[in-house]
């Protein structure tokens, strides 16, 4: 494999061992507004940058259900998850002890029916609706940006 091919890999991970990489499940929260998709982004608690809700796998819970649970806790989303991974993105997760952990987030669509005013992380984050193109421009991770930019809810139908 040439260096040029290495640069084209979709994930950028810095880990000493492949077992160091952790998986999270992320929610691409969306709604239709006049027939056009809008994507809900939230701010991270620390740096306040725009992100999608995400969290660790949960025992006995499907990846889509875990993504929906994170969307509820972090953004007050009430809706329905679809068990179809839209793609993955990598990012460095900052831990409380000052270290970073390489993570891969698998993205699952969540159709938003309502947003609650009272939810576990209310007051800790901002949330805002964006067009797919604007949402893609707001996030830091290139792979996530590509997933958001090309999101088409019409392709989710069986």
TrEMBL record:
Coiled coil: none annotated. The keyword Magnesium applies. Pfam families: NUDIX. It comes from the Bacteria. One of its GO terms (cellular component) is cytoplasm. One of its GO terms (biological process) is diadenosine pentaphosphate catabolic process. Keywords: Hydrolase, Magnesium, Metal-binding. This is NUDIX hydrolase. It comes from Aquicoccus porphyridii.
């Amino acid at each position: 494999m040439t260096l040029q091919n290495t640069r084209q890999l979709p994930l950028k991970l810095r880990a000493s061992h492949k077992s160091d990489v952790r998986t999270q499940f992320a929610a691409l929260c969306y709604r239709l507004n006049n027939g056009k998709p809008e994507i809900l982004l939230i701010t991270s608690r620390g740096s306040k940058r725009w992100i999608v809700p995400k969290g660790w796998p949960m025992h006995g819970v499907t990846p889509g259900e875990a993504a929906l649970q994170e969307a509820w806790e972090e953004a007050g989303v009430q809706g329905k998850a679809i068990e179809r991974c839209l793609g993955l993105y990598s990012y460095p997760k900052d831990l409380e002890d000052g270290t970073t952990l390489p993570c891969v987030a698998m993205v699952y669509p969540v159709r938003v029916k309502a947003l609650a005013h009272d939810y576990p992380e209310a007051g800790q984050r901002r949330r805002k609706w964006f067009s797919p193109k604007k949402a893609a421009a707001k996030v830091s991770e290139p792979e996530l940006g590509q997933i958001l930019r090309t999101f088409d809810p019409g392709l989710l139908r069986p």
